[in-house]
Write a structure and sequence with these properties.
This protein has eight helices and six strands. With 271 residues, it is an alpha+beta fold. Pfam families: MDMPI_N.
């Protein structure tokens, strides 16, 4: 993972705190009905309620030490109603965000907690929530036209998470995956790291339902088999993988069919 290659582990809790604070600062004075350009079905109050709800959810799991999915479902069913005004939404966000940060700081990273991913630990929830806050901080800034820089190392880790976990695939005995193109290298021009992805079509039965989706098989570094390359700053590639606008150009070179196959994987929303 890029976070451990240089400079030691990333301070996810610091990033969570800083981006949550910036998110609140931006939305506190935004018009309630201002549209969020990167999430056009939401207005500013919807975005505030969304991240507040996400941080409430994971803060509740951390505070109660939940590891059982049935307990998590019951907890989620009992969440409070959405406040009807901006002051109520801000108050809800403040309580949820403060508790999430406090509870995650108090737990050793290896603490078992319920998680939808294979890594069911407080440490991964720290990582996931740092990236959640980052992406929605950007959404808030885009809403008011006040974009600020994204930390390079955090963005590089975000690329790794987006490729491997949010858009990635690990071979599973119940699922079949078939490559739909040759491999493509994704390279950062500032974080000194690259990945090679192979777009695959995945079919089979997962959690009791039939699926047919496209995802990535992911490896570290360049690969001689790659027939195309996508490059840019870590911040821009992270934004691109989350279907958010970039600040500068992302360069695409090589086989057009392979590049189109990468785009097909990114067509799925991961909001």
């Amino acid at each position: 993972m890029p976070s451990s290659r240089s400079g030691g582990p990333l301070p996810f809790l610091d990033h969570l705190a800083a981006d949550s604070a910036r998110f609140r600062e931006v939305l506190a004075t935004a018009p309630a009905d201002a549209r969020v350009p990167s999430c056009p079905e939401w207005d500013a109050d919807d975005l505030l309620w969304h991240l507040g709800g996400v941080q409430w959810f994971w803060g509740e799991i951390a505070e109660r030490g939940l590891t059982d999915e049935d307990e998590v479902d019951a907890m989620n069913d009992a969440r409070e109603e959405r406040p009807s005004d901006r002051a109520g939404l801000l108050g809800f966000f403040d309580r949820a965000s403060e508790r999430l940060q406090r509870e995650l700081a108090a737990l050793p990273p290896q603490t078992p907690l319920w998680m939808w991913s294979d890594d069911k630990s407080a440490g991964y929830i720290r990582r996931r929530q740092a990236h959640e806050a980052l992406i929605h901080r950007l959404d808030a800034e885009l809403t008011v036209g006040a974009r600020t820089p994204i930390d390079c190392r955090l963005a590089a880790d975000g690329i790794d998470e987006a490729l491997r976990i949010m858009r990635g695939h690990e071979p599973d005995p119940d699922l079949t995956h078939i490559p739909v193109s040759t491999p493509v290298t994704i390279a950062t021009v500032d974080a000194m790291h690259s990945w090679t992805v192979t777009p695959v079509r995945i079919t089979g039965t997962w959690n009791g339902r039939e699926i047919d989706v496209q995802r990535f098989l992911v490896g570290d570094g360049p690969d001689a088999a790659a027939t195309a390359e996508i490059s840019g700053s870590a911040a821009d590639i992270d934004c691109w993988l989350w279907n958010r606008p970039t600040e500068d150009e992302i360069v695409r070179d090589g086989d057009a069919a392979a590049l189109s196959a990468v785009d097909a994987v990114l067509a799925d929303s991961i909001d």
